[in-house]
Design brief:
This protein is mainly α. Helices cover 82% and strands 0% of the residues. The longest helix has 32 residues, at 105-136.
Amino acid sequence: AVFFQYGLFDERSADLTSYALVFFAIGLAAHSAVQVLTRAFYAMHDTRVPVAWAIVAVAVNVPLMVALTGPMGIGGLALAISITASAEVLGLVWSLRARIRSIHGASILAAAWRSGVAAGAAALFMLGGRVLIEGVVPGLLEHGFGRLIALAAIGGAGVAIFVVVAAALRAPELDQLRRVLVRRLRRGDDAPSSGM
């Protein structure tokens, strides 16, 4: 609604788009993981395994789309893509594990669990924020600028909740992020000034 709901793109169009995005979001982590996993095979000079799993994914995707589009409409297309991306990830992980035997599965699952809990807390908080805005200031969401303000406020609060929960769960990724940010800031300070 913030980015597209203007002119001919009405509220119904925004609802249809968000309906599809919900099912695309299910496979978001899988789509990201596919990019990382295929690069692991490329680093080992192996292009055959990623291509083989991509072909399997397409072969599964087409009949799944046909099956899901009937009962679910556009959401079925998105869900089929998410399911096949997840299947491709499982295949790539299975092939990679057979190859290197050490992918630190326990630490990956622990990181995924921490991220999932923090994201769930942030999502619940943001949903509550939206319900609160709709109840207290319903007119705010009726125009683009008001929706943008609501998105910025709720989104910012969601990021803060995510960080707080991740810190409470002692997520090492936050320390890694902090170190990267500090390193970049220092690099910016060390850059020669272009003064006159």
